[in-house]
């Protein structure tokens, strides 16, 4: 399991996709099975533990195929393998929560931080809202972190404000040291910089906010 987690961390750090078109270990050995399985397969060349585990999974898949025909060929066998899409997603979610927790702690211990928010449509034409934090630590070093990416139901000021506020509160973000908010969209800036929104943010943050256009 440790090697599976390390592989997930490595792919996430490099920004690489996980999945492949055909992910069965007993199908065409020349087929690209995706970065996750191919990385483990590469690791197995030098690591006997990984090699033994993959061989065990191949045997399970072969047995499942013999018993269930083509129906059994779609899965990875009936036993736990730690190679499934569900396992990958669970590990990704756990790591994501841990990273977010560390960012929130850093915000709580910083000298000051700024909120960065931006929306952009995805390929299915749904607005995706990214929420980031620019943090200045106690040594004066500045860093930026992605806190969350949410699908926005709309682009009206109140809708975006509520989504940002709800997301930050749910993560336990402290507003006491929030000194600025920045946006990469002039229209979004105009919507959120209205008098009503400005007063709402002051109430949440207990400090005047500097609105800037990045």
UniProtKB/TrEMBL annotation:
InterPro entries the UniProt entry points to: DUF4371
Domain DUF4371: 4-185
Source domain of life: Eukaryota
Pfam families the record matches: DUF4371
Region ranges (Disordered): 60-80
PANTHER family found in the cross-reference section: DUF4371 DOMAIN-CONTAINING PROTEIN, PTHR45749
Protein name per its UniProtKB record: DUF4371 domain-containing protein
């Amino acid at each position: 399991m440790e090697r599976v987690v390390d592989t997930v961390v490595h792919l996430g750090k490099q920004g690489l996709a996980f999945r492949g078109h055909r992910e069965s270990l007993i199908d065409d050995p020349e087929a690209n099975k995706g970065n996750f399985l191919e990385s483990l397969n590469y690791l197995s060349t030098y690591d006997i533990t990984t090699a033994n585990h993959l061989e065990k999974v191949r045997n399970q898949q072969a047995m499942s195929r013999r018993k269930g025909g083509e129906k059994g060929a779609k899965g990875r066998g009936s036993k736990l393998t730690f190679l499934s899409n569900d396992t990958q997603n669970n590990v990704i979610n756990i790591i994501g929560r841990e990273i977010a927790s560390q960012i929130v702690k850093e915000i709580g211990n910083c000298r000051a931080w700024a909120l960065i928010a931006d929306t952009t449509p995805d390929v299915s034409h749904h607005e995706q809202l990214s929420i980031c934090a620019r943090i200045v630590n106690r040594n004066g070093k500045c860093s930026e972190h992605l806190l969350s990416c949410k699908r926005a139901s709309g682009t009206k000021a109140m809708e975006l404000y509520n989504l940002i506020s709800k997301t930050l509160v749910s993560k336990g973000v402290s507003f006491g040291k929030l000194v600025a908010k920045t946006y990469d969209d002039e229209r979004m800036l105009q919507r959120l910089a209205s008098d009503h929104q400005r007063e709402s943010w002051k109430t949440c943050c207990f400090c005047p906010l500097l609105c800037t256009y990045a």
